[in-house]
Amino acid sequence: MTQTTYEISSIKTARTFLKEGTCSETLMNVLDRAFGHPLTAEEHAAVPLAGGIVQQGYQCGMLWGAVLAAGAQAYRLYGPGPKAEAAAIRAAQRLVVSFRAREGNINCLELTETDWQNKWQMTKYLLKGGGITCMRRVMGYAPEAFHVINEALSESDVEVPSGPPSCAALLARKMGASEMHAVMAAGLAGGIGLSGGACGALGAALWIIGMGKPEEQIGFNYKHTWAGETIDKFLAYTGYEFECSEICGRKFESTGDHANYMRGGGCSRIIDVLSTNSKVDVLKLAN
Predict the structure, then answer these.
(1) How far apart are CA 77 and CA 56, in angstroms?
(2) By percentage, how much of the chain surpasses pLDDT 70?
(3) How many domains does the chain have?
(4) Helix/strand/coil for 156
(5) Which has the least CB within 10 A, 26, 75, 113, 225?
(6) 284 domain residue, yes or no
(7) What distance in Å separates the CA atoms of residue 176 and residue 3, rounded to the nearest whole number?
(8) Is residue 21 a part of any domain in this protein?
(9) Which domain holds residue 176?
């Protein structure tokens, strides 16, 4: 594959952050445009992933947004199917590695040292200029993320397992999403790039439902919204565990390892729980 070349403007990235307000939507917005394919509805639906899934403090929203953008590019390069999903997972793995190397951690709680459920800590962070810090992080990481995605997707030796590679892509299809959206979600598997963080299927469900509810704003007070209902349903099944490694009792060594786990019935119940009464019509958004 020929690598895409594009220079991401720090000024435009900052303007996008100030306009959109969240790291997840901003980074996805910037990367999509760098690849030449804006996806406005999909980008806005990434808002609930900011703050580590509606301010829960798990993986930084930048990672969620970057992985969704990587999945979109994987779909454009490889089309639908396992190869595109596997390529998206590899890109997600590389993004996790690069982000951790750059920031020292991938979780919002550790990066901001702020519990977003604590109003005093949240207020203190914002008053100390925390929003500017987040904007600077996005400005710095956007060009690197673009390079990482390009490099990962340009390699031809993609491991394509015999079974479905991604729990998140499988969930997307079960919820009525298009093939493009399934591949976009694929890299969220295993807690984003098989890293074991907060469940990728949960993140995918929030993103997909959000595409079907573009008029509804999900902010800090999410608990009495559809996002809160989705999270409560998920936590009731997982015993109030968010992280993939805790729910599954392990991390996954490779795409094939994760596919084998799913082929043995792993993740099937979570997918059923999240998709029940959550099917949405997002086919009209597919390009």
Answers:
(1) 33
(2) 93
(3) 1
(4) coil
(5) 113
(6) no
(7) 32
(8) yes
(9) 10-279
